[in-house]
Amino acid sequence: MGQLHEYLKRISPGDAAAAEAARARWDSVAKPLGSLGLLEEALVRAAAISGRAEIRLDRRALLVFCADHGVAARGVTQCGSEVTARVAEALAEGRSSVSPLAAYARCRVVPVDMGMRDFPGHPGVLNLRVKNGTDDLSLGPAMSRADCLLAIERGAALAEKLAGEGTELLAVGEMGIGNTTAAAALACALLGLSPEQAVGRGAGLSSAGLERKRRAVQRALEVNRTDPRDTVGVLSALGGLEIAAMCGAFLGAAACRTPVIVDGVISAAAALCALRLCPAAGDAMLASHVSKEPVGKALLGAIGLRAPLDAGMYLGEGTGAVLLMPLLDMALRLYDSGQSFERLGIEAYRPQ
Predict the structure, then answer these.
(1) Which of 66, 125, 250, 252 could form an SS bridge with 175, CB 3.0 to 4.6 Å?
(2) Three-state DSSP class for 58?
(3) For the chain, which residues score pLDDT lower than 50?
(4) Is residue 317 annotated as part of the catalytic site, yes or no?
């Protein structure tokens, strides 16, 4: 855990003075106090983690971590594991669902192979693979503790690399057939939920498929018997290689004081793991949307975030995180506009 420990040591809470300056800037804008709600709060959080009230979010990147799950063999998914690789290739070629959204949002997309099954590689897909997919979590641990730590560290190092290259805003997404099963299992273990509370239909399971998925999660919890105080132990037993890497990316972004957007339910499960490893890492996180998966709101609540978007989405690939970016752009345009009460000849609003 040596390299991970070094990242954890570098993470500190957001800068209170920068946050206060950002709030003062918002309060000087000629509008009712706090009237942009969660968008105001998002920019205050961005100011706090960057340590300055002058917010810059122009250079941005979406990390899409890709890996396969052994539990997919239990009939818990609508399609086969081969789809993970096809989507990763589409991501690299600008043909995936998130691609046009990211282009509109001026966001670079970085697909990353953490362990797609039998994946030979593809131009534009970054190779950080740890193993050839996870094992079936309903029969035992999804991966070894060592492999889990390696995936976390590689995710953190990648976030650090991009921050070092000048990236001002990161987003964390995923692709991995079967990963809503892993995310639900993680939520059960870390939040004390039942499979009935946590497990959803993913990409569109039938009622019979939903029941198979719930049974798989129940078996995983019984077989692995994790300790919720041991985050790495829970993540290695019940998670995925891409989820571990996402956890690392949240930690790496926090260590580099770079704001990072949480996507949907899988991203939120990874963010919760990062928060359990280092509570201060939460100060770097921005919520994007509430997943349609039943455990989406519980995970966001556990990491202390409220999402501006609640549109019943469950696409993945970081699409929700990217959809937040134009909203942040518009909020930042007003934040920087200089449209003050004084300039408009209006008496400033005061807290009542």
Answers:
(1) 66
(2) coil
(3) none
(4) yes
